[in-house]
Amino acid sequence: MNKILITIAAIVALVAGLSWATRANEPDFAEQFETACVEAIKERIKAPSTFRLIEAELDPDRPFTMEWWVENRNEDWSKSDDEKERDLGERLKDMAERHAASGYKIAAALISYDAENSYGTPLRGQSLCELPYDPEGEDFPEREIRIDGQTSFEWMLSRL
Questions:
Q1: Hey, which residues does 56 pair with through a beta bridge?
Q2: Residue 141 and residue 136: Cα distance in Å, rounded?
Q3: Phi, psi dihedrals of residue 53, rounded to the nearest 5°
Q4: In tens digits, what is the pLDDT along the chain, a chain of 160 residues?
Q5: Helix (H) and strand (E) counts for the chain?
Q6: Checking DSSP bridges between strand 122-133 and strand 146-147, what pairing results, if any?
Q7: 146-147/105-116 β-pairing
Q8: Which of 14, 53, 69, 118 is deepest in the core (most CB within 10 A)?
């Protein structure tokens, strides 16, 4: 009987130790956020290989507010002549209000960096990186990252 209890205790200890070791090796949210911001900035500069991070001021716990949503949306659909666009705007506003009420947060980082332009001249840049996220969520919402108010998709559209 003692051998069975010792074996069970050893198995429980092994599983707990492996679980802790796995979580200990995962980057925390702030590290993931900073890395994702840097990668998003690199996608937008002329010479990404010359990117050099100077400083990243992180604020990972701002509450999601309607003011942030209003400041960061790109269009005011409520003034559109198209009924479908007005309806879409109302649904997006409702979604933002639900997110604000549900405890969503906005991670923010002011990223200072050096990089070369297309002529090889070194320049210093600074970008604001923001990410609305659910603190209880399991997946890191990388596609929602905004650099200077634009997601990667919005930035690509603006380049056309």
A1: 111
A2: 12
A3: -70, 130
A4: 556 555 555 555 555 554 444 444 556 888 988 999 999 999 999 999 999 999 988 876 666 666 666 666 555 666 777 777 777 677 767 766 776 676 777 788 889 999 999 899 999 999 989 888 877 777 777 778 889 888 888 888 888 8
A5: 5, 4
A6: antiparallel
A7: unpaired
A8: 69
